C-alpha cells in the first residue's frame, strides 16, 4: 500500500473513531456510568491519531503540500470531521490518479 493510500485510509478511520468516541463512548461514560466504551475506543483513536499525524509528514512531499497545507492537515486532526474533508478534497485522487492540488 502506498503512503498516500495509507493516509486516505487512516484519515477516514481517525475521523470515524473520533466521532464514535465523541458521540457514543463519551455519553455512555458520563451519562450512563459505563466507562468501558472509552476504555476501548480511546486507545484505538489514539493510535489512529498518531498514525494520521505521522502519515501527514511522510506523504506531504508526494502530495505536493506546502507548510501551510501541512499545518492545516495537522490541525484537522483535532477537529471531529475535518479529516474527512482533508481526505476528500486534498488527498483523494482525481482524473488520472493525480492528487488534488490547491487552487491559486
From TrEMBL:
Membrane topology according to the record: Multi-pass membrane protein
InterPro entries: DUF3817_TM
Main location: membrane
Ranges of residues in domain DUF3817: 5-90
Localization per Swiss-Prot or TrEMBL: Cell membrane
Pfam families: DUF3817
Entry keywords, A to Z: Cell membrane, Membrane, Transmembrane, Transmembrane helix
Signal peptide: none
Segments passing through the bilayer: 7-28, 40-59, 71-91
Protein name according to UniProt: DUF3817 domain-containing protein
Protein species of origin: Actinomadura miaoliensis
